[in-house]
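S.,

Sequence below, as promised.
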Amino acid sequence: MTDSRHAMIIANDRYTDQGLKKLRSPVQDAAALEKVLHDPQIGDFEVEVVHNASADVMRRRIQGFFNDRRRADTLLLHFSCHGLKSESGELYFAASDTEPPLLAATAVPSEFVRSCMSVTRAGRSVLFLDCCYGGAFSRGSSSVRAAGDVNVLESFAKDEPVTGRGWAVITASDSMEYAFEGSRLADDSSAPRPSVFTHAVVEGLETGEADLDADGKVSLDDLYEYVYRQVREQNPHQTPKKAAELHGELHLAHSRRGRIKIVAVPSPPSLQTALNSEEFLTRQGAVLELQKRLQHTELPVAEGARQHLEEVARNDIQQIAVMASDALGKIRLAPSPDHLDFGVLSKGSAPRKQSVTMHGPPLARHCVAQPRQSWLRVDPTDGGLEVHVDTAREGRLSGDIVLKGVADESVIHVEAEVAPAQGIGGTGPEPGTSNGPPEPSHGGGDKQHTVVVGPPGTPPRPGKPPETTASARRTGRRAPVLAGAALALAVGSIGTFVLALQKAVTAIVERGEEGVRGTIEANVREYGALTPLVVCLVTGAVALVVGAVARHDLGTRRQHYTRQAASSTHTLTSIAKGLAIPALILAALAGIAYLVGSRHW
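The prediction came back faster than expected:
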């Protein structure tokens, strides 16, 4: 994202001229678009809305919007109104006081907007035009109906952009949708209606579905392709158009998609054949080869290996499934530290930075960071992330940064306290307080330095309550303990099934020696074969439930567990599941056999 992002939404739905029909969508469009663009987790734009303004006010606000900008700024201007084409072919945007016979005096010409875009110092300017276009009022009383294309983009692509700057224009449609007959607006099948275009923009940004390449960011190209598809599906007669002259890729928003998606490169056919082999050692060797590919620097190769290992972990026998699970555990997100405490900060002071290192192979380090609070800022670095805290608001701040990878999520918890500037001298913390470890001095004035905090388990720093760390340690042992209990129950289930089987065999042999006398029920009750069978069913079911609870706790409280604890939990629960399920199946079959056979023997 760039340093400064500004958006202006111009929405006109009421016109003093009776010939212009009232539009139904601009008010709703403006509110929805403002919300999604301003959201710090999505667009992070500073947004202003101009609603039902006169032509003079519109020109002033537009020129002011583009003035006094910096090279690092990104500007987005959105029109939701009528677009009118004069008899000479010039395009105008209708204001609340627009009179169609006097477009030059009462409307905003597209040439004016293009001129403002061309002279701004902002590095990048984006224009969205969600307009219903029509031909202007004809002199005299003769009827003029416009038809065909408006050629909107030609009004904005006449000149090359200023050197080093970029621009883009996306229009909802390039065709004439209505015309004037006499002094009245002619109705046709394309009369003004709720906007499909702006709805698609809002939906694509809000849901993250516009992030077509699943890289965690919505680029201009992503958004245009998404909107184009959505609009064409809703109205095949409406075709969005785009013109752009940009240097590099322009990211308009963060993505809220669940996780990063990487197009996997399938493993070689020979390796896939080995995975399906009947030979145990052959499959074991294939899993070892997949472990190597999982470490590959090319993410599509590693992702292909990950998908194969997940299939092995689900479907193969216990010993090989555990190997696959252990390999997958090594690519789980492992931020260090997973708790940042900025201590006491001065209100309005320059944002302090702390760095987070991502451990593991490339696939484990590839993730998207999504701050849950607006005062958190995250920038990617070569080795991980750099976290900033906005000091504009006083008080105790506590928030989370959610990390989303290809198959895993993690959370970094952030705390800070922003005090009034005079309360801490306006330049730093009060004596006796701490903002974290001292920053290394490299000389050279006010340059900010990143702070690398030690791994989880280090003693709490000043300002952090000791009980918080103690509580984290307690919760950090919960999942492994539950996993161990699940394994113990699963082993008990196997043991009681073996005991029930022994007693059942003895009862059957005894029944066979009695000949025509007696019944199988009497022999089973005499040797007590049913009791261990029931215990086997109960302990096996409880083992599965406890194992599921352990995995759930590990998933929801990932920040409290070390990599070793997470790996141990996965291993123990996998073994417990591998023991409990066969025991339950065999016990259930034995019970069914007893119920059916006892009637005939």
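The chain has 16 helices and 20 strands.

Coffee later?
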